[in-house]
Write the structure tokens for this entry.
Amino acid sequence: MDVKSTKDLGFPDYWNNRYNNGAESDQATHEWFRTFEKLRPFLEKELPNASTEPHILHFGCRDSTLPADLANLQFRNQISVDFSDVVIKRMQAKHPDLEWRVDDVRKLSLHDAPIDIAIDKGTLDAMLYGSQWDPPEEVQANVRAYVDEVARVLKPGGRWLYITFRQPHSVRRQVVRDGVWELVVERLDDGPGTFEYFAYVLTKHDGAGSLKTASLAWILSTSTSKVREEPLRHPLFSVNTTFLPRKVGFLSNFFTMTHAQT
């Protein structure tokens, strides 16, 4: 996928056309970045008990089964947003008992701090193109607006669960907001020889309403145990190479796929 095609991922017309005429026009489910069953152990660990009725927001839901899968586990307070009106209409028809909204994650219509859990499974990735070290200004502006919106709508103590193939040294540059949240990174894989995904858990600090200076707790863990914990003194530098994974993923490997990840 070239830069122009990657850039197109950030516009609703691209996705409307894709859902109407392209790879996702067949009404089947096209899961991004692991299926629900693959993510279930992680989600069961990170989600509050359904009996507490947490409010969950899916950023860029597309046609994922995740909202319906969570509803089957009795998570009833869910809002799924996407800027493609085509896919939202499709999902409203499939699951009329759930809440679906056409909305732009960079400027949500939600009021401040109603959300306990925010979930992103590939939405931030769709905004990223060009150099990861010196991205175009448009990328920086879009990412900044999106991440700030996540922080705005989360309650103090709320969590943003971001699932991606992107490595920690790359993601940290995009999501760090000093004084706003604590970041924990978990490696998701199925054993030797399988592709690695990462789950970034960002927990909003109590009273975090502005971007203030603070240290960041950075933890890289496997699905079962912590590998290392170290406070980082600067949000951009002093990256320790022991945190870096063995494999490198590429955006084009994912956004050209037309079937569920396994």
In short: The two ends are 21 Å apart (CA to CA). The CA atoms of residues 45 and 223 lie 10 Å apart. The longest strand covers residues 154-164.
